[in-house]
Specification:
This protein has 13 helices and 14 strands. The protein has a 6-stranded parallel β-sheet. The chain has a 6-stranded parallel β-sheet with strand order 11-10-9-12-13-14, sandwiched between helices. Strands 4-6 form a two-stranded parallel ribbon. Strand 13, helix 11 and strand 14 form a beta-alpha-beta unit. It has helices at 20-36, 48-54, 70-80, 96-103, 138-148, 164-174, 198-212, 224-235, 251-260, 270-277, 291-294, 307-315, 339-352, and strands spanning 11-15, 41-47, 60-65, 85-86, 88-91, 106-107, 110-112, 128-129, 179-182, 215-218, 242-244, 263-267, 282-286, 304-305. The protein is an alpha/beta fold.
Length: 365
């Protein structure tokens, strides 16, 4: 017998710890739940870095879990929430760590992914599973939780808060003239292979500068890989054409830079989904991950998509013959993307969205 769904949940828990792009894709589900039940109380258990990006999100109480604290950090959360019983726990993290964390939370109903989408035996930790949804985009997979609870209005809305201090931080780095925001590196995890070439980025920077008078702001973290990439791109670019802001911003500052940008160019990484959440025109570079599943949702038509070619070239299979969401784990996959590919998509974007950057968050579509 299935556990019954509450007609009007009063207190709901969202369990999603990471990553930056994923939590941005989850926010529309939060907004849909809030529209359905304006008085609902939402507690979101979230990762440390992800909280620094979304802090201040209206109508949400955050409980931060730092994965570096391991089981001790989980026990602290269990103690803090020991007197709280949720009507519903939305288990939206497909990882064993999150499932273990969920065990210490009290909830009348625990909802997780269907068996086809669940990982690390997540369905063992939930009462009910989502209806199957084959080949779903990440954003749609999150929205399926709201649909199961009876939410019909699934319009997309984000309303991410950008503090004045973050906007000032962005202006000090980029000034008030129009610019592109380029985030050249994805998360430097083992066998990630999502990064494009410094030469390719430099060619796009030169085109934007010579043809449109647009400077490019480079963004990213302070890892050696990102610093090395930034240095290489700078060495290949005209000094007046590029501003190196790698390692120079907070996450809120990066959000403000993206909000004020004319357009964003990046591989499959947090910044393309941050841009999507702010309605900033975005060119995503995809070869190792499937953009049908993971592209910036509102800018899918402007993605450079070499994923099918990468599957055939490096996996020697048809895209129809691999599992949904499978990545191409080959260091040469992103080399299938040419500078002309990116310039063509950028030109289409600038033609279709010929507006100036704004200094406040763009309005919801």
């Amino acid at each position: 017998m299935k556990h019954p769904l509450p007609a009007r949940p009063e207190h709901l828990c969202v369990l999603r710890l990471s990553a930056l792009g994923d939590v941005c894709n989850l926010v529309p589900t939060i907004r849909a739940l809030q529209r359905q039940w304006p008085d609902i109380r939402i507690t979101w258990i979230i990762g440390k870095g992800e909280y620094s990006l979304l802090s201040g999100l209206s109508g949400v109480e955050f409980v931060v879990y730092d994965k570096a604290t391991g089981l001790a950090g989980m026990r602290d959360i269990w103690r803090r929430l020991g007197d709280t019983r949720f009507d519903v726990l939305l288990h939206m993290q497909q990882a064993l760590r999150a499932s273990i964390l969920s065990l210490g939370l009290k909830a009348n109903l625990r909802i997780g992914y269907d068996k086809a989408r669940a990982k690390d035996w997540q369905h063992w930790f939930t009462h009910r599973q989502l209806a199957p949804h084959s080949k779903a985009h990440v954003l749609e997979s999150f929205m399926d939780f709201a649909r199961l609870l009876g939410v019909d209005d699934t319009r997309l809305a984000w309303e991410l808060p950008i503090p004045d201090a973050a906007a000032d931080e962005a202006r000090q780095l980029a000034g008030d003239q129009p610019y592109l925001l380029m985030s050249p590196c994805a998360n430097p995890r083992l066998r990630n292979f999502r990064n494009w070439s410094a030469e390719g980025y430099a060619a796009v920077i030169e085109h934007a500068w010579s043809q449109h008078g647009l400077r490019t702001v480079l963004s990213g973290g302070n890892s050696p890989q990102e610093r090395e990439m930034g240095t290489r791109i700078m060495s290949l670019s005209a000094p007046d054409a590029v501003i190196d802001a790698i390692g120079a911003t907070s996450l809120k500052g990066l959000l403000a830079l993206i909000n004020q940008a004319r357009a964003v160019i990046a591989p499959d990484s947090g910044p393309v989904h941050m841009a999507n959440a702010l309605h900033t025109p975005t060119v995503g570079l995809f070869a190792t991950t499937n953009p049908v599943r993971a592209a910036p949702y509102c800018w899918r038509d402007y993605v450079v998509n070499r994923y099918p070619e990468a599957v055939r070239t490096f996996m020697h299979k048809s895209p129809d013959d691999i599992t949904w969401g499978q990545r191409v784990r080959h260091p040469d996959a992103m080399s299938l993307i040419s500078a002309d590919d990116v310039i063509e998509r950028l030109e289409a974007l600038l033609t279709d969205y010929p507006f100036s950057p704004v200094l406040e968050p763009r309005h919801e579509a």
